[in-house]
Amino acid sequence: MKKLQIFFIAFLFGNTILSFASTVDTLQVPSIAMNKTYKAAVVLPNSYAKGKAVYPVLYLLHGAYGHFSDWLSSTPNKNTVKNLADQYNIIIVMPEGETFSFYLNSPVNKGSQFETYITEEVIQKIDKTYRTVNDKKGRVIAGLSMGGHGALYLSAKHPELFCAAGSMSGAVDMGTMLGREPNDQVIKLMQPVFGDQSNKPELYEQNAVLGMVEKIKTNKLALIIDCGVDDFLIEPNRELHRRLVYGKVSHEYTERPGAHTWEYWENALPYQLLFFSKILKNNGTLIN
Length: 288
What we know:
Layout: H1 2-19, E1 23-31, E2 36-44, E3 57-61, H2 70-73, H3 80-88, E4 91-95, H4 114-129, E5 139-144, H5 146-157, E6 164-168, H6 176-180, H7 183-194, H8 201-206, H9 213-219, E7 222-228, H10 234-246, E8 252-256, H11 262-282
Helix pairs in contact: 3-11
């Protein structure tokens, strides 16, 4: 009988924990720009269902070869994103970016218009579906690798949408791929973005975050950038840091032990959330 009571109490306790845990929605987000529908994962903090408050939103972008569910399925601790949503009372949205879009609007392919998709269609859908702070004061963006490029690129081009941006192991110089991978493989992968011009280094340079320092400076967004010291992208990140320092652009830059791995990104994400939480709190949009 005593064992039965213990089991019953444990069962109730477990259900209580689950009932107050963050929830994950898989949302269909249609794109008029690309004439197709993609999915986005949306993590709602446990407090969302308890009231009528509006919540700040983090748009969290995945990397190359990846998809929208990566941040939920690939971290060593599968609860990393959900725990952070609960800790900071923030909605975390993970949209689709395809395997090699770099979150750009392709000049040659109407089926790869991911700048428009994220900045117009995804944000609009999220703000209509959930109780969000429908203002840049409550909206931040971050990502890993290709998504790090995307976060800095999109925030630089659309400062009216975000108050802060973060990059983890960001591919801030897309031309790095041309030197690291077999060029024919890179050209094939980048054809959805640049088409038959994918073999031209100047296209990569023209769309690289490294060349956007003046625009970033003008926007005065809060920035956080980090990269592992063993990451193959460390040198482009150091160069971006140098250019930002030379341009007197305020930002946080960190190098830590680690490589281009999910172990590194799982460790990096909490630092980015801590940084964003301070910005959101100053803006009066973070729920205590």
